[in-house]
Amino acid sequence: MIGNNRFDLAAVLSRNRDRWDHGVARGQKGFQGASARSFGEVDASSMPVILSNNIPLPEKRERFNRAVLEGMGKLPDSWQASIFEAQRTGTYVEVTIEGPETFAWTCRFTGPNEQEGRFIKTTIRNGLLPFLTGK
């Protein structure tokens, strides 16, 4: 909270980025996308964000958040992701990424092999590549 009881999003993002980058600087695998940006003024509108994630298990929810943000990496403009797990069956997780110029990409990850961090990151990078390279 700041002065007028308003929430200072830029300050919160900056504090979290410091923690994430500290882990990366020590050689740990961690956020290499949004957290690798420079410190100082934070333009929250140009950072990839997770809009929603309904995965009930905290460890799995965090694993997907991290993999999606790392898969998105450093992106120009405003990008957002939504993560949806089928609640009745839990057999799949669907990730939707929206970006500029009405870009939208969705992928369904089924089974334990497809729900591993490395697979998620690679799939997202490959899915965004045509848009980013213009091919």
Please give a structural write-up.
By secondary structure, this protein is of the alpha+beta class. It has a domain at about 45-135: Double Stranded RNA Binding Domain (2-Layer Sandwich), CATH 3.30.160. Helix content is about 40%, strand content about 20%. The protein is built from four helices and four strands; from the N terminus they run αβαβββαα. Strands 1-2-3-4 form a four-stranded mixed sheet. A hairpin with a 5-residue loop joins strand 3 and strand 4. The longest helix is centred in the N-terminal third of the chain and has 17 residues, at about 10-25. Residues about 1-40 have low confidence and may be disordered.
Précis, in short:
The chain is an alpha+beta fold. The protein is built from 4 helices and 4 strands.
Q: Determine the strand fraction and express it as a percent band.
A: 15-25%
The spatial strand order of the largest sheet comes to 1-2-3-4
Instruction: Find the CATH topology of the domain at 45-133.
Output: Double Stranded RNA Binding Domain
What is the chain-wise order of helices and strands? HEHEEEHH
Helix content bin: 25-40%
So what's the CATH class of the domain at 45-133? Alpha Beta
Oligomer: single chain
Low-confidence stretches: 1-42
Strand elements, count:
4
Q: Report the total helices.
A: 4
For the CA atoms, what is the radius of gyration?
16 Å
